[in-house]
Amino acid sequence: MTVATYAPRHRLRPLLAAACLGAATIMASALPVQARGPDGIADVAEKVIDAVVNISTSQTVEAKGGSGEGRGAMPQLPPGSPFEDFFDDFFKNRRGPNGPRSGGDMQPHKTNSLGSGFIIDTSGIVVTNNHVIADADEINVILNDGTKIKAELVGVDKKTDLAVLKFKPSRQLTAVKFGDSDKLRLGEWVIAIGNPFSLGGTVTAGIVSARNRDISNGPYDNYIQTDAAINRGNSGGPLFNLEGDVIGVNTLIISPTGGSIGIGFAVPSKTVAGVVEQLQKFGELRRGWLGVRIQQVTDEIAESLNIKPARGALVAGVDDKGPAKPAGIEPGDVVVKFDGKDVKEPKDLSRVVADTAVGKEVDVVIIRKGEEQTKRVTLGRLEDTDKPQPASAKSTPEPEKLVTQKALGLDLANLSKDLRSRYKIKDSVKGVIITGVDNASDAAEKRLAAGDVIVEVAQEAVANAADIKKRVEQLKKDGKKSVLLLVSNADGELRFVALSVQ
């Protein structure tokens, strides 16, 4: 379970509890029955409890002692520090009375962790979180009656933090099915069951606090937020509706203490079901790929593109080898509908494309220069490309005399060989380079910087700095409030930026 800090160990205060008991009894009798939650909670818990399992993992960790990094958590203190002797004694005691073993290397040791999961098939298929079993050498499933069985990993999806396990059952199992998380309503009662703090089989209840919550944890954030008590060890456990269907997988909490403060997040069952199906079938995720880079359509950008109201996903770049290019999608297009589904913001497009089958032909509705167009696209497959590409080494010739123009709070210059070399700009990047930015300007606020290259102004290509200045002056005369720039970085990655011309 992801939290801000570890939960503190609390001590019971029986005197305080006794003093408050009478008042609590009076208050409870005055409250309506509904304040305790619906009566069906006990029936649901009894029905599904045997399908909820504990996940036990072990991992071998190699640790080193001695000097430098080998001292593990030993703080690096200046010689003569008053804390030096204290920490030396502390870490020596941890290593044993004879100091470090084997010339400074400590023996490898095993670490254990516990999480939760649930059975979706009586053949022994279990769903949990990826972070519960990540890097584990051994995984065991512990049933509600205490039976411990070794499990195998079927597959994981790091982007949604989900994993599927399988084990050979020794008896008849209870399995649960997925419900429809799209039908959840705010305020609807939900039930969480899991293994908080290794207590096992713990049932808590609460309501749906929010849906479609984006907490910037991953590219496909779409969490259910609940105030049902979720703590360390609940990770991977199910969130049920009152019919006993799984409508989410408990994954994250926000907490300054490590314990529940009523803000928990679950991956919705619609997402989980699709991921689990692919992991069972392929052992991996095969997501759809459109081959575009997208960004938010701000009010300023919407005004520049004649889009009212601001909506959709703005195409900032098109992959030369992607499906969007042969379909005729271009930078500056705004995607407002994909395969019949409305796209209100970039995250909507990312999710719906990822959930669409590889190779499927879909209609993509775009707005180009104020008019809607429909493009037919055959989706490709998304490949993980997280490795950074090293910049190629380039020689630095003698600097040329720099001639600049000023516009929009920017110092602008024609893109010469000297400037291309100085800022390591790829040969494929064409336009006018920014050599300076006024710190008090709108451009600085929009994070434009020296080395960025302006490729287009108002969706028209530019070749020299004087041309930009003329176009900005013309836009002012035409009464425009902002100008839309297509900006490239040194590697050729594009983005749109709207700047005020007033």
Automatic annotation (TrEMBL):
<feature type="domain" description="PDZ">
    <location>
        <begin position="408"/>
        <end position="490"/>
    </location>
</feature>
<keyword id="KW-0574">Periplasm</keyword>
<keyword id="KW-0720">Serine protease</keyword>
<feature type="domain" description="PDZ">
    <location>
        <begin position="279"/>
        <end position="370"/>
    </location>
</feature>
<dbReference type="Pfam" id="PF13365">
    <property type="entry name" value="Trypsin_2"/>
</dbReference>
<feature type="active site" description="Charge relay system">
    <location>
        <position position="131"/>
    </location>
</feature>
<feature type="active site" description="Charge relay system">
    <location>
        <position position="161"/>
    </location>
</feature>
<dbReference type="InterPro" id="IPR001478">
    <property type="entry name" value="PDZ"/>
</dbReference>
<feature type="binding site">
    <location>
        <position position="131"/>
    </location>
    <ligand>
        <name>substrate</name>
    </ligand>
</feature>
<keyword id="KW-0732">Signal</keyword>
<dbReference type="InterPro" id="IPR011782">
    <property type="entry name" value="Pept_S1C_Do"/>
</dbReference>
<feature type="binding site">
    <location>
        <position position="161"/>
    </location>
    <ligand>
        <name>substrate</name>
    </ligand>
</feature>
<keyword id="KW-0346">Stress response</keyword>
<feature type="signal peptide">
    <location>
        <begin position="1"/>
        <end position="35"/>
    </location>
</feature>
<feature type="region of interest" description="Disordered">
    <location>
        <begin position="378"/>
        <end position="399"/>
    </location>
</feature>
<feature type="compositionally biased region" description="Basic and acidic residues">
    <location>
        <begin position="378"/>
        <end position="387"/>
    </location>
</feature>
<dbReference type="Pfam" id="PF13180">
    <property type="entry name" value="PDZ_2"/>
</dbReference>
<comment type="similarity">
    <text>Belongs to the peptidase S1C family.</text>
</comment>
<dbReference type="InterPro" id="IPR001940">
    <property type="entry name" value="Peptidase_S1C"/>
</dbReference>
<dbReference type="GO" id="GO:0042597">
    <property type="term" value="C:periplasmic space"/>
</dbReference>
<keyword id="KW-0645">Protease</keyword>
<feature type="binding site">
    <location>
        <begin position="233"/>
        <end position="235"/>
    </location>
    <ligand>
        <name>substrate</name>
    </ligand>
</feature>
<keyword id="KW-0677">Repeat</keyword>
<dbReference type="GO" id="GO:0004252">
    <property type="term" value="F:serine-type endopeptidase activity"/>
</dbReference>
<keyword id="KW-0378">Hydrolase</keyword>
<dbReference type="GO" id="GO:0006508">
    <property type="term" value="P:proteolysis"/>
</dbReference>
<dbReference type="InterPro" id="IPR036034">
    <property type="entry name" value="PDZ_sf"/>
</dbReference>
<protein>
    <recommendedName>
        <fullName>Probable periplasmic serine endoprotease DegP-like</fullName>
        <ecNumber>3.4.21.107</ecNumber>
    </recommendedName>
</protein>
<feature type="active site" description="Charge relay system">
    <location>
        <position position="235"/>
    </location>
</feature>
<dbReference type="InterPro" id="IPR009003">
    <property type="entry name" value="Peptidase_S1_PA"/>
</dbReference>
